[in-house]
Amino acid sequence: MRPTNNALRDYRLAFALTLTDYRTAASATFRHLSETSQIPEQTLRAYAKGTHHPDLPRVFKLAPALGTTPIALLVAVSDRVHRANGHEPSPNALHAVLLHGGLSLDQLGAFDA
Asked: How many CB atoms sit inside 10 A of residue 100's CB?
């Protein structure tokens, strides 16, 4: 199944909002996150704008810098995508990873069928 443009757009926006929440809670600047995660500051700003989202290796670098775990970060993004689309959040961590990979909520439903 190919990811849809809307699914990627929605996911990037959800990731941006979740990143902002975690960054604010951690009182972390982009510079601090960059130094801690070894992800360029410009790249972090692109994530925060919703123009890009990190690949999984970068999620593993970014999450500890935000004071969380990679799966907790992905589940938080997944919850936001579900709620924004009128669905109950999924407690399934695999669903969070599949959404990160670009599947839409409809495709995710077909995945479980």
From this structure: 21
